[in-house]
Amino acid sequence: MTGPTTPAALVTGGAGGLGRAFARRLAARGYGVVIADRDADGAAEVATEVGGTPVTADVSRPEQTVAAVRAALDAYGRLDVVALNAGIGSGLAATDPLDLEAYRRVVGVNQDAVVYGVDAALPHLRGAGGRIVVTASLAGLVPMPADPLYSLTKTAVVGYVRALGQPLADLGVTITALCPGFADTAILGPLREPLAGMGMPLMTPDEVGDAFLAVLDGGRPGEAWFVQPGRDPEPYGFRGVPGPRGPAAGAGVPA
Ligand SMILES: NC(=O)c1ccc[n+]([C@@H]2O[C@H](COP(=O)([O-])OP(=O)(O)OC[C@H]3O[C@@H](n4cnc5c(N)ncnc54)[C@H](O)[C@@H]3O)[C@@H](O)[C@H]2O)c1
User: Fold this and answer.
1) By the 8 A CB rule, do 213 and 23 touch?
2) Is residue 112 lining ligand 1, measured as CB closer than 6 Å?
3) Is 183 in the pocket of ligand 1 (CB under 6 A)?
4) Residue 246 region, left (φ>0) first, then alpha (ψ -120 to 50), else beta?
């Protein structure tokens, strides 16, 4: 039974490995969960499993992100948690010639969709203790030479979350980034075998799902939490940038 007293969550990329783990955990906590994915069958399957609501949406299109938010409001009458999680690899290696379509695609899903998701959800989250968790990546904290365009987008969203931390907190909304290392999901594609061959430990989606809950419960505005095999997830400690020298020292230095 759902209604305005049931908390509601939206998970983009909810049909994928990590999104499904997030959706299961949110449903287990009593959330009504909207599963938004461009994969209609996958979204329907996860929604059936968690008793949620499927939405077919390409979140790199702003109007389809708005429709996904609207679906949560229509189904549950409110919105409390938004997991902006849809993502893809670029498919381009570092020295490949630039494929403009592939470039626009990876920026569209990994970066634009986060901007669209925050914008669409914010009016419904403000003042109500809402939370936004953006699935970035360890590739947003350290370079990922195997896919520099992926690293570009994930670094961008980490910067976006950090910059939005305080302004959204002022509205009563907490935004955080989740930065997992490699996890065993479809996104790894052809990278999976070489990674396994190198002895790289791959996390299970459930491990990342537990980290998602840790960030949801304990993440503070603008934090980016790393998630690594065998370690407890924690906020990454960014090294401060030295301020200016001279008489104007202390003025105009971003926090
Ligand atoms: N698996 C990893 O190793 C890993 C590590 C760090 C970060 N991440 C990030 O985690 C997130 C989830 O990825 P995953 O590992 O579950 O991969 P996945 O491929 O299993 O899931 C990604 C999901 O996003 C959906 N999707 C892609 N483009 C979309 C679009 N335009 N609109 C709507 N849905 C779209 C896909 O259909 C899929 O269901 C991504 O942002 C990814 O970059 C993954």
Assistant:
1) no
2) no
3) yes
4) left
116 labelled catalytic: no
Domains of the chain listed by start with CATH number: 8-235 (3.40.50.720)
Give pLDDT tens digits for 195-224: 888 888 999 999 999 999 999 999 999 999
Q: What is the pTM of this model?
A: 0.95
Give 242 Cα–ligand 1 centroid separation in angstroms: 36
pLDDT at 195: 87
Could you tell me which of 153, 67, 47, 176 has the C-alpha nearest to residue 116?
Answer: 67
Q: What is the pLDDT of residues 176-199, one digit of tens each?
A: 999 999 999 999 998 898 888 888
Both tokens of residue 33?
């969960």
E strands, the chain, in order: 8-12, 32-37, 53-56, 81-84, 131-135, 174-180, 224-227, 234-235
Q: Ligand 1: does its nearest atom lie under 6 Å from the Cβ of 153?
A: no
